[in-house]
Amino acid sequence: MSDITLDTAAAKVPKAAPRTPPASQIGLPAWLRANLFSSWINTAVTLVVAYFLVRWAIGFVEWGIVNAVWSVPDNQTQACRDLRGIGACWAVITEKHRFILFGTYPYEEHWRPALCVLLFVGLYIVSAMRRFWRKELALVWIGVLTLIGVLMWGGVAGLTYVPQERWGGLVITLILATFGLAFAFPLAIVVALGRRSSLPAIKALCVLYVELIRGVPLISLLFMASVMFPLFLPEGMNIDKLLRAQLAIILFAGAYLAEVVRGGLQSLSKGQYEAADALGLSYWQKTGFIILPQALRMVIPPLVNTFIGFFKDTSLVLIIGIFDLLTAGKTAIIEPAWQGFGIEVYLTVGAIYFVFCFAMSKYSQGLEAELNRHRAR
Amino acid sequence: MSETLEHVASRARTDAPPAILLDKVNKWFGALHVLRDVSLNVALGERVVICGPSGSGKSTTIRCINRLETHQEGRIVVNGIELSDDVKALDDIRREVGMVFQSFNLFPHLTILENCTLAPIWVRRMPKKQAEELAMEYLARVRIPEQAKKYPGQLSGGQQQRVAIARALCMKPKIMLFDEPTSALDPEMIKEVLDTMVSLAEDGMTMICVTHEMGFARTVADRVVFMDRGEIVEMGTPTQVFENPQTERLQLFLSQILRGH
């Protein structure tokens, strides 16, 4: 048809046999030359940076592994103190890791929060796999989150009751982050759609919500949830402190995520809306099949950015006395025998945060590539 | 060929009720008066081409027919249903009116096949398998069945526009609206889209087409409408309008079009 082909032209041109690029242009040597040693300045920079990197790495290995103390008997930390600055005292982690992970949860019941952490991780992994993206996944979430609640509280099925005040450590961080984002994300989508609604009341309500929540720091919201909110409740009625903090985080994250989602909605061309309208799709069909799938794909990077931010921001609950991972780590070294081993504890806590955040980041990169395949030519 | 078309169309005009009726339609964008007393009757099976300089209100006119734009005065009746704020009536109209846009507006995240089956499945409540068969039938008709599994971004402009036509046809509309369907295409792709539209016209589809393709208008149109500054200036058979323009505005427009080609 009208597709232009160059067959006739190509026939007249002698065909050159395809060759591989010259050997000097491919492989490791070429890469090194192009990226690290392309000029004398680059070569100098490369060498200086490499020198400091190697020195720092050697120092870290000596401190962290070679000279480190891995355990001490009966809180006798003298061996560690003798090595201050020369070797790490990982004994503090060996000794306190259960406290850092599980806080003041009763010692003999630690298997319960441990199981909860595994359940959370399992839930993340299952949810990350696209072949499980079906309606049933929502039921799995409800089931697992309920099970986690039962395990943590106990009081049923032969489990002893553990009041919320005794929960702590990693499991608190995961609870706050998971419940927080699981509720904040749908809330954010509704608010973002509401902000673009043609109904003035709905639009005003959504704008008010976003601007009010965004206008105050998370810390003040947590304070309000912890101190002011109970004042408004009727006498004798009390809502769990963790739940109040959780609500504050959901509201806060919801406002931020709503703006991210709205950014995605703005980026779609008017033609997409019109094409869906012209085909007779209803508002919800248009939103569900055409608008949101495209808008959300577009905003995966800022969404994950916000997710990661809120995962770490859950540590702010320490100001209202909830023992999350960071607070538990900090509390673990209050005991006189272990005072002064902050570096080791914070490195460990930091590593745990990093694992979760890095996993999120890596996963989102893969997801982005996969979901945006249609943009590849 | 145009002779027989003329014949079929004139017969259709007398027997059938009007598919589209515009009666003194007025529209403003803010203070700008973009449609001025536009009145137009389109019979079932009739093919109307609207032409005119840019900003003359051609696109706005056809976008009012399926209410992508709302008119502020006058009546629009499509397929016997009056356009109003009644949502139900609007749904009924959009179901019967297919539209093809200048910029294709395919859904980039869905495959060609999914683009075509989405509305039949969800609006017409057609079983998926049946919808897919129907889609393949229409994709074959616009001569690109082999692209069904691809995404719109992998197709050329001409192919995308043909998919857009197939997508609209999958809803089995009674009326098709074309809003400058070839204006965004490279010259070598215009013909493939026009061919598809001609074949559609030969099947007796009621069509309103905003276009500058005068060749297409001559072969296919029963009637050519010339608009300028928001009003219908002249209207008649292609021969009347192109060979014997009555007004200065149309003469000027035609001379510019001819110079451009």
From TrEMBL, chain A:
<feature type="transmembrane region" description="Helical">
    <location>
        <begin position="343"/>
        <end position="363"/>
    </location>
</feature>
<feature type="domain" description="ABC transmembrane type-1">
    <location>
        <begin position="170"/>
        <end position="364"/>
    </location>
</feature>
<dbReference type="GO" id="GO:0006865">
    <property type="term" value="P:amino acid transport"/>
</dbReference>
<feature type="transmembrane region" description="Helical">
    <location>
        <begin position="303"/>
        <end position="323"/>
    </location>
</feature>
<dbReference type="InterPro" id="IPR035906">
    <property type="entry name" value="MetI-like_sf"/>
</dbReference>
<dbReference type="InterPro" id="IPR043429">
    <property type="entry name" value="ArtM/GltK/GlnP/TcyL/YhdX-like"/>
</dbReference>
<keyword id="KW-1133">Transmembrane helix</keyword>
<feature type="transmembrane region" description="Helical">
    <location>
        <begin position="167"/>
        <end position="194"/>
    </location>
</feature>
<keyword id="KW-0812">Transmembrane</keyword>
<protein>
    <submittedName>
        <fullName>Amino acid ABC transporter permease</fullName>
    </submittedName>
</protein>
<comment type="similarity">
    <text>Belongs to the binding-protein-dependent transport system permease family. HisMQ subfamily.</text>
</comment>
<feature type="transmembrane region" description="Helical">
    <location>
        <begin position="110"/>
        <end position="126"/>
    </location>
</feature>
<dbReference type="GO" id="GO:0043190">
    <property type="term" value="C:ATP-binding cassette (ABC) transporter complex"/>
</dbReference>
<feature type="transmembrane region" description="Helical">
    <location>
        <begin position="206"/>
        <end position="233"/>
    </location>
</feature>
<keyword id="KW-0813">Transport</keyword>
<dbReference type="GO" id="GO:0022857">
    <property type="term" value="F:transmembrane transporter activity"/>
</dbReference>
<dbReference type="Pfam" id="PF00528">
    <property type="entry name" value="BPD_transp_1"/>
</dbReference>
<dbReference type="InterPro" id="IPR000515">
    <property type="entry name" value="MetI-like"/>
</dbReference>
<feature type="transmembrane region" description="Helical">
    <location>
        <begin position="40"/>
        <end position="58"/>
    </location>
</feature>
<dbReference type="InterPro" id="IPR010065">
    <property type="entry name" value="AA_ABC_transptr_permease_3TM"/>
</dbReference>
<feature type="transmembrane region" description="Helical">
    <location>
        <begin position="138"/>
        <end position="161"/>
    </location>
</feature>
<keyword id="KW-0472">Membrane</keyword>
From TrEMBL, chain B:
<dbReference type="InterPro" id="IPR050086">
    <property type="entry name" value="MetN_ABC_transporter-like"/>
</dbReference>
<dbReference type="GO" id="GO:0016887">
    <property type="term" value="F:ATP hydrolysis activity"/>
</dbReference>
<dbReference type="InterPro" id="IPR017871">
    <property type="entry name" value="ABC_transporter-like_CS"/>
</dbReference>
<keyword id="KW-0547">Nucleotide-binding</keyword>
<dbReference type="InterPro" id="IPR027417">
    <property type="entry name" value="P-loop_NTPase"/>
</dbReference>
<keyword id="KW-0067">ATP-binding</keyword>
<protein>
    <submittedName>
        <fullName>Amino acid ABC transporter ATP-binding protein</fullName>
    </submittedName>
</protein>
<feature type="domain" description="ABC transporter">
    <location>
        <begin position="20"/>
        <end position="254"/>
    </location>
</feature>
<comment type="similarity">
    <text>Belongs to the ABC transporter superfamily.</text>
</comment>
<dbReference type="InterPro" id="IPR030679">
    <property type="entry name" value="ABC_ATPase_HisP-typ"/>
</dbReference>
<dbReference type="GO" id="GO:0015424">
    <property type="term" value="F:ABC-type amino acid transporter activity"/>
</dbReference>
<dbReference type="Pfam" id="PF00005">
    <property type="entry name" value="ABC_tran"/>
</dbReference>
<dbReference type="GO" id="GO:0005524">
    <property type="term" value="F:ATP binding"/>
</dbReference>
<dbReference type="InterPro" id="IPR003439">
    <property type="entry name" value="ABC_transporter-like_ATP-bd"/>
</dbReference>
<keyword id="KW-0813">Transport</keyword>
<dbReference type="InterPro" id="IPR003593">
    <property type="entry name" value="AAA+_ATPase"/>
</dbReference>
